[in-house]
Amino acid sequence: MTATYTSAATRQHTVVDSPYGPLTLVATDGVLAGLYMTDQRHRPPEETFGEPDPRPFAETIRQLDAYYAGELREFDLPLHLDGTPFQRSVWEQLQLIPYGETRSYGELAEFLGKPGASRAVGLANGKNPVSIIVPCHRVIGASGRLTGYGGGLDRKQRLLAFENGTQDDTPALF
User: Of the candidates 134, 11, 24, 126, which has an alpha carbon nearest to the alpha carbon of residue 78?
Assistant: First the structure.
């Protein structure tokens, strides 16, 4: 019998400034696996982020800067998304929501063929490890109200206003 051993994944991180406060970028084996805001709900412990090293993030930072400048509407990055099959299916649906548009949790559940699963969709949405790039901020309540966002409702409102061209240029404090 031959045993197969796999080495532990290599993780690195860096912190970058953004219009929405500092963002912690995390890579697993050189592929983006996390984008976390300060005080974000479901943010993993810092000790899981690996060694500080900005090298794996050059393209992510370039695309984020283009997004903030209004020059990029769709990210094109390889992602390493750890989650259950259901969570990953929700995160795939999030990436299909066009820039500047929103969907309700119920609509996402319908797209997934699980019309009664809007609450489960909301839970999966909240555990999205790569906010902004996997645009969980584009999901709203059925009534059109802003509901839950791991980075806080203020950031969600600002991201949606930015994408709709109605952003207030007043700096927010994060």
Answer: 134
